[in-house]
Amino acid sequence: MRPPDWLAYITAVLERDGHEVRLHDFPAREWERDQFIRLIRKQRPQAVILDSTTPSIDSDLNYASLVKQEVGAIVAMVGPHVTALPSETLLHSKGDVDYIIRGEPEYTARELFAALEQKSSPHSIRGLSYLNQGQPVNNQARPLIENLDELPYPAWHHLDLKKYFDGIKLYPFIDIIGGRGCPYQCSFCLWPQVMHGNQYRLRSPQNIVSEIKYDLRLWPWIRKGEFFFEDDTFTVNRDRALEICHEILKLKKKITWSVNARADHGDDELFQLMKKAGCRMLLIGYESGNDTVLKMVGKKLSPYTALQKAKRAQAAGLKIHGCFVLGLPGETEKSMTETIEYALELPLDTVQFSAAVPFPGTSYFEYCQKNGLVQAKKWTDWLANGEQSGVVDYPGLPSAYITATVDQALKQFYFRPRYMTRFLLSTRSLRDLYRKTRGALNFLDYLMKKMKS
């Protein structure tokens, strides 16, 4: 579970404009319907913004309906699902959703709330969708935000960040979004295709480190955990990555941080400087160990090159978390075996295997729809069998087999005696022991639920 980045940025922008805003994250608080009803009855908001995802969209729309029933407030929705399918969502909501904010939401939300406050029509706002006499209207798309330094820092002060846990990250952690977009065009990747675009827009290193200082003042205990850069490809722009390291080294006290990184970027100088500046881990999307599969999805990655880069990163003292996807186009039983063997060959500290999931708005989704491969009948099926499970049936390679292979791969990696011994002996503190114990229990609980199903 990670903090709600989009909502925190929207909150910060609206607060800067003088609006009174409250940000609530129900999953983190383990709140449900009853708490939501009590909250909106007490606070009686004039407008509510709800986040959305594909598997949760029916639930999201149910909460929009609750808002209308209880207080009759304006309801807007943001997120990748409604951005990809605004017309469908508006029609399905039957009037419970007034506006959909497509794409990057901050400035569209700002203009929408300004119009509502001034009682003027918001119907010309770029990036906005709405119903007009029962028919969906999708305004012109809003250009991506060019100067990310103009955005205020996320409104983390509304949240208890100690409620967020991720087994691969040190506990506690705070996310940093140092850039948006990805120059690569992998067919299955949701965020560049739907929300961020393929232009990698960068915040200045000085602005990023200024946010780190702000977070340290707000949450001084983060020194015991880490910052995590959620940029898709932190290491793609080498000069800028080096500059960020130099800026972090100017801080009076050392911090720990980790990043998302591209598998074929980085060299000894960069890896060594990142380590010196406090970088702990690279989270890398290898996806597959099979050349054919990688070419089919447009990954443009050589498994051999990625292996050599991983060895260089390990030599510099960086840990590596590897992400793999089984069941992509071109996949076979043999290629999945190759991917598992490749994962075992890489110098990985932790690993994630998932079944390929085609999300609306991606070219992978269009490919699956065109070829009749999606066996899910409704959006809730996207997570019906768990987060790592598939919803695509290929000829001769059903989703059930792909999902079973995901579980097999996880067990092959984590249940190696040498790995388990190293995992325990590398524990660095009581907080680290808590993180590892909780992560291990979550993993075992996942496997037990799969066995029962």
From TrEMBL:
Keywords: Iron, Iron-sulfur, Metal-binding, S-adenosyl-L-methionine. Gene3D superfamilies: Cobalamin-binding domain, tm_1862 like domain. Transmembrane segments: none annotated. PROSITE patterns: B12_BINDING, RADICAL_SAM. Residues 168-387 form the Radical SAM core domain. The keyword Membrane does not apply. Its cofactor is [4Fe-4S] cluster. Residues 1-123 form the B12-binding domain. InterPro entries: BchE-like, Cobalamin-bd, Elp3/MiaA/NifB-like_rSAM, Methyltransferase_Class_B, rSAM, rSAM_horseshoe, rSAM_sf. PANTHER family: ANAEROBIC MAGNESIUM-PROTOPORPHYRIN IX MONOMETHYL ESTER CYCLASE-RELATED, SLR0320 PROTEIN. This is Radical SAM protein.
